[in-house]
Design a protein that fits this description.
The protein is mainly beta. It folds into three domains: 305 residues, Beta-galactosidase, Chain A, domain 5 (Distorted Sandwich); 103 residues, Sandwich (Immunoglobulin-like), CATH 2.60.40; 199 residues, Galactose-binding domain-like (Jelly Rolls, Sandwich), CATH 2.60.120. 8% of the residues lie in helices and 39% in strands.
Length: 662
């Protein structure tokens, strides 16, 4: 179903892809967008809707709902003013909101339409809902179109005024672009997965459904919308659907408003007879809901819907060229962030600063795969009646999270930061835990150097052993189907066959890559009854214990320290015993109760570092010792999430045992 895009192929198509539009889309320097050629931008009022055009594309949006009913490519290869790219019974662009007080997902209705600004270079429109009787929060959906840009900017100003109902929790805010015709069967999520196709109608008709939007095709392969998530949200800035001639690409130039750099989210998947692109300003799929208080306000986006056509050759070659064009558009949008034309004070376009510095890790020297993060803590954070770490940027949904990769020499530069006081956090492959430094003051429109920071990851003494490398994933352990097997099959169904006696790991003898599973299920046979029946597995709800065997000397004095870093947790509990004596119990495991990692085909979600487990070193015997990890009790998911309960368990990032003899 997929073929990675070879570098040589991409380079060979660069010239052809550049011809897909009348104007080049190479990245430009940051700052105001340069003047570009092209027809004037126009707005036509149709009464209940408006039509915006710039000679390259044209779209029609309903004033009261922000629903795009019509989208057309007007110029360049494959231009056809008579074809609506949102054709089909379910083709359109639409809103979807999930929040407390709403029994189900609702859409925008009764919005007040206005024109924010209109010139021959740009038109920006507003669809504002601010009625407590119909919606529990304020939302102003803005759309804009520019001269010479074949796409639609879409951003939201969301507020929680005093006159709204109390107790607002936002679970999902979504805008979707749906092309409901069978021709839209191609898609690209990233270079690694390459060009892919959705299954044919005939294949889907014969497929076996094993969970929502997840089927086994007649040839035995899995197809699921969860396979198309963005696996590293900090790096992936664009994804695309195509009919083999025209590409619709969703560009996210910045992830500041929804939790970069490790957040995962759905991108595109099949939709009725065609495909759909998803923009999620808020979604708790792999992390937590957003709970806000009165007076809160935030700007989400803009995202940018890029529309382009190409005429290179066959459909697959066309899609490769369209993908290259989409990546150029994404680079251009990233270079122009933040957009100076957005005048809303919360967006603070002209007040952004760059924050730079250097991080050294005492135990590692160089930084490998590291990230620097700026965020504002939320000390009163709650989720499903559980208090979360308010100083954890993963849960900082009310504010913004700014991030940048750390270079191997330790230097980092975080762009486009709003004025304020922040906590600097950092994490890197190989370092247990996370670096944090509070009180970073960022003034407006400045270049801020926060100096050199030295991180001394916590160490308690001599390391007896460590399983796994801290990197916030469980991908370095055994995964059925290979490195990315977690999204190629329902891996949990194979666990009882690959580990018929559970995980019984001997330190220094066994290999974590083959003998330690990436997912520790709560029960012997994880999976729903229907999944187990399909696999031919006899259900067994026995709690699943894992053992770590290690040889050691006898310790007459001192303290043992066990550090457990988790890559994910799905309604899990965990008890730890050493040679039959319990040394810790987590019921439940701290953090988000159900991050959906297993069910949603991931090898990580909300990372958490369990409190260090201490015990008298005298519990360690001379010779072989046995450390046991087992659930405390069967999983208990809330009614709303009980569909994840059969796949409950934890994913380990790394486990380390140390001893301090003093």
């Amino acid at each position: 179903m997929s073929s990675p895009i070879a570098r040589r192929t991409v380079l060979g198509l660069m010239g052809a892809a550049a011809l897909s539009l009348p104007h080049a889309t190479a990245a430009v320097a940051s700052g105001p967008a340069p003047a570009v050629a092209g027809p004037d931008v126009t707005l036509v009022d149709n009464g209940s809707s408006v039509t915006l055009s710039n000679g390259l594309i044209q779209f029609t949006v309903v004033k009261s709902t922000a629903r795009i009913t019509d989208l057309r490519l007007l110029a360049g290869p494959q231009a056809d003013s008579s074809t609506n790219l949102f054709a089909g019974a379910h083709g359109n662009g639409y809103t979807e909101f999930n929040y407390s007080g709403a029994p189900k997902a609702v859409a925008l209705t009764g919005a007040v339409f206005s024109v924010v600004s209109q010139t021959s270079d740009r038109v920006e429109i507003s669809m504002l809902a601010d009625d407590p009787s119909s919606l529990g929060f304020y939302v102003d959906i803005r759309m804009a179109i520019e001269r010479g840009r074949p796409g639609i900017y879409n951003y939201w100003i969301v507020k929680y005024p005093e006159d709204m109902p109390d107790g607002l929790t936002l679970t999902q805010l979504r805008y979707a672009y749906a092309a409901d015709t069978p021709a839209f069967r191609w898609f690209v999520v990233d270079d690694e997965r390459g060009v892919q196709q959705r299954p044919t109608a005939a294949e889907l008709k014969e497929a076996v459904t094993l969970q929502d939007s997840t089927v086994v095709l007649p040839d035995g392969t899995l197809y699921s919308k969860y396979q198309n998530k963005s696996n590293l949200e900090g790096d992936n800035h664009v994804f695309m659907i195509s009919d083999g001639k025209v590409g619709l690409s969703l560009v996210q130039a910045s992830k500041e408003s929804f939790g970069s750099p490790t957040r995962q989210e759905l991108t595109c998947h099949d939709y009725y007879d065609g495909m759909i692109l998803l923009w999620h300003p808020i979604a708790s799929h792999y992390t937590a809901n957003v709970e806000v208080s009165k007076g809160w306000a935030k700007v989400y986006g803009p995202s940018y819907l890029h529309v382009s056509g190409t005429a290179v050759g066959d459909e697959r070659a066309n899609v490769e060229a369209l993908w290259k064009d989409a990546k150029r558009a994404a680079a251009r949008e990233q270079a122009e962030w933040p957009y100076k034309w957005i005048t809303d004070a919360t967006y603070a376009a002209t007040e952004r600063s760059t924050v730079s510095g250097k991080l050294s890790i005492a135990s590692l020297g160089t930084v490998a795969n590291g990230w620097a993060v700026l965020y504002q803590p939320e000390p009163d954070r709650q989720y499903q009646e559980i208090t979360l770490d308010g100083n954890d940027w993963q849960y900082a949904g009310r504010g913004y999270v700014y991030a940048a990769k750390i270079a191997p020499n330790g230097r980092f530069a975080i762009p486009a930061v709003r004025p304020g006081t922040y906590t600097l956090a950092a994490f890197a492959k190989g370092a247990m835990g996370e670096y944090r430094h509070s009180g970073i003051k960022v003034p407006a429109a400045a270049t801020v150097n926060v100096g050199n920071h030295v991180w001394k990851p916590t160490s308690h003494g001599k390391t007896l052993w460590q399983i796994g490398t801290p990197d916030r994933t469980s991908q370095d352990f055994h995964i059925h189907g290979g490195d990315n097997g977690y999204y190629k099959s329902l891996t949990w169904l194979e666990y009882p066959y690959e580990f018929p006696n559970g995980v019984d790991f001997k330190v220094g003898v066994d290999d974590p890559a083959t003998d330690w599973n990436y997912f520790h299920p709560a029960v012997r046979t994880p999976g729903t009854p229907a999944q187990l029946q399909w696999r031919g597995t006899t259900p067994d709800s026995t709690l699943e214990a894992w053992k770590i065997r290690f040889d050691a000397r006898r310790y007459r004095r001192g303290t043992g320290y066990l550090d457990i870093s988790l890559a994910a947790s799905v309604f899990s509990t965990l008890a730890v015993t050493l040679n039959g004596e319990e040394i810790a119990s987590f019921a439940p495991v701290p953090g988000v109760r159900g991050d959906g990692s297993s069910y949603r085909l991931a090898a990580r979600a909300a990372h958490r570092q369990l409190p260090t487990i201490t015990f008298p070193a005298g519990l360690i015997r001379a010779g072989e010792n046995v450390l046991t990890l087992t659930p405390v009790s069967p999983a208990e998911a809330p009614t709303a999430d009980n569909w994840m309960q059969p796949m409950s368990g934890v994913m380990y990032d790394a486990i380390r045992l140390q001893v301090d003899r003093t």
